[in-house]
Specification:
The protein is built from twelve helices and no strands. By secondary structure, it is mainly α.
Length: 282
């Protein structure tokens, strides 16, 4: 399929040139115009946010058109070298005039891992079938989608309002790109807290006579997971050539470290609190 061919070509291009350049060219692209400088109305219609959203949603259930192999490549590099993932976003802007993904394969795979990890988490917490279904619905629609929509909208507003180098209709942060940045940052957090963390819950986190060890393991996992989220979010917006002062997006990390040390003084265990919260909710 065309989508698969484009993404396979992109992956090969990145692997070939990764040792020669740290970032793809950052020139911007606008819909093609005629010789007199006016924009073709048909081209303009194809590049509206509504048209891009319709194209994305239309492909959501066409699995044969999705490049799952490239989506898995992105998931791997979000852990090892997230900068390489954002190089592809530059390339997409130059070839398709949009920063956001036009292939929902990453979202589909993320949804799959989210469901699998949540079922595993419920198994560790010894939940029944009905409780597991309730937990799954909560994690998917509240933790991932609900919080994702809120954070994406907030970041979309902040970046367009306060971090633009110059206010122009030709430069803006797409809402879809803001949501993609959230998904990129959410994936490592999901793996750490829903895949890795459950192995420590029953054997370390809930040892009442060793609260220091349990708090250290649980809170350290949260520190790493949220730290990953902040860092990948920063990389996502710093990759946009028309934004300035994106380093401010790293400031929450200082607050995160402060809370991490305060938690030891107050004997807070974030993992234990999360488990208790899930039990109450379901």
């Amino acid at each position: 399929m065309l989508g698969s061919t484009v993404f396979h070509t992109t992956a090969s291009w990145i692997w070939e040139y990764e040792s020669h350049a740290s970032m793809l060219p950052t020139t911007t692209y606008s819909p093609q115009s005629h010789g007199n400088g006016t924009v073709n109305s048909r081209d303009a219609a194809r590049h509206t946010a509504g048209a891009k959203r319709y194209k994305y949603l239309r492909r959501l259930f066409r699995f044969r058109q999705m490049d799952f192999e490239f989506a898995m490549w992105q998931m791997l590099y979000l852990f090892t070298s997230p900068q390489k993932v954002y190089r592809n976003f530059h390339y997409r802007k130059q070839t398709k005039d949009q920063w956001a993904r036009d292939d929902p394969a990453f979202l589909v795979l993320l949804s799959f891992w989210l469901c699998v990890s949540t079922v595993g988490f419920a198994f560790v917490l010894e939940m029944g079938f009905v409780q597991t279904i309730k937990l799954l619905l909560w994690v998917v629609f509240i933790d991932c989608i609900g919080v994702g929509l809120l954070i994406s909208t907030l970041m979309w507003f902040i970046t367009n309002k306060y971090l633009m180098k110059q206010q122009s209709k030709d430069y803006d942060v797409e809402w879809g790109y803001a949501f993609d940045v959230h998904l990129n940052a959410f994936y490592p957090l999901l793996i750490i807290l829903h895949f890795i963390q459950p192995f420590f819950i029953n054997h370390i986190v809930f040892i009442t006579d060793a609260w220091l060890l349990g708090s250290f393991v649980g809170n350290t996992l949260w520190l790493i997971a949220v730290g990953y989220y902040i860092y990948i979010t920063f990389l996502g917006y710093s990759a946009l050539p028309f934004l300035k002062n994106t380093v401010v997006l790293l400031y929450p990390f200082a607050l995160l470290v402060l809370v991490y040390f305060i938690a030891f003084g107050l004997r807070w265990n974030f993992t234990a609190a999360l488990c208790n919260f899930y039990r109450i909710r379901v």
